[in-house]
Model the fold of this input.
Amino acid sequence: MRESSTCDCDCDAALATWSRWSSRTQKKLYSSQQASPRRIRRRDNDGGDGDWSSRADADAARLGNNRPRRKATTARARARALVPSSGAVPRRHAAAPPPPSVRTVSIPFSDLKERDRDLSGKIEEGLGPNGLGIISIADVPGFPVLRKTLLRLAPIVANLPEDVKKELEDPDSRFNFGWSHGKEKLESGKLDTFKGSFYANPILDVPTTDDVLVRRYPSYCRTNIWPASHLPELEIAFKALGKLMLEVGLMLAHHCDHYVMQQGVGPYDGESLEQTIASSRCHKGRLLYYLPRQFSKQEEGGSVSSWCGWHTDHGSLTGLTCALFTRNSMEILCPDSAAGLYIRTRDDKVVKVTFEENELAYQVGETTEILSRGRLCATPHCVKAPSSENASNVDRSTFAMFMQPDWDEKLKFPSEIPYHQELIPPNGTLTFGEYSERLVNKYYQGKT
Ligand SMILES: O=C(O)CCC(=O)C(=O)O
Ligand SMILES: [Fe+2]
Done:
């Protein structure tokens, strides 16, 4: 599944879902939480894995304005400045104010690797109901070198000859393996040509040899495609970073489980997050290359989602590297401090989120939010392109490691869930593979 996929999102449906959700689900789904002194609250998924493109900010404003206001939160307190829920970034004629910016909660790797250490406070602050839904891990041995080595390959992959890239495509997986560019449609109906992705499972080259499974779950079960003759170093760098991100993600998952259990909900429905991730054959890495964008004077940088549309990742945990910016092949600091990763906070503010270059960040995905019954919360996010005058020709490379349940893992969805309700059968049970393929069909059928 292409987690940061774009779609023809139906924001009225999203709004309706939100209304149903906010009135009923807060009462029902997480009812066990009512005993907890901590206030548990929810958000919508901002229209699903959708790219709002041109209507993004208007729709965000509409959704935001219809939502109940929420209390100040820890995340909010950490913000240096926050913009209104519209996420409105001044579009023209105004001198741009400094971007609202929030630093992630950070955990040193030396603490994370101690299984018996109690990190619940940090987990709650970063990933709990009042957190940002993203947390960073500092000082992971080996990470800085592996990050740079892989991210430097992103523009090289994107600039391989067209015929070579064509050979790296895998339409049968709906471009969920190998090279993918311009295959997704934006809400406007236009193809998303702003970024190119290279997808692979960094853990298993051949997740299964069972043809039935390959046909049933092509986006996970097909085999990796590597540019073995044109760029052999890609496979090595991709696998090395992906494996490290999985290892550290498993450590984080262990502490997340500890936190969830502490909250008094008992075990998850099914396996713990750590077991779920450890036993999965579905992990997917995505090397992203964002092409330079040029904005007209009128656009003045476009919306906050000008590089990657608003979405929540649908799996368990997503590892993210800090992006690398280049101009004409020279590594640079991004000349526009407003560019980068944005999230919507629990209290409906759109903020830029920052973490150190050498930190490894993790975001919660929808499946974890559902299975932890809202103890760990997924975060809507998007990426803004640089838009200031001196930002021309700037590109961005990053890597996302989507850790998700196995295709065979049975997910017992609660009777009401905040995401993709219409895909869940009345008995509420699907395997993760079935759930993912339904999502792929929802967003890609007939669109490639
Ligand atoms: O580019 C980024 O920083 C985030 C990418 C992302 O959200 C995704 O691929 O799902
Ligand atoms: Fe994402």
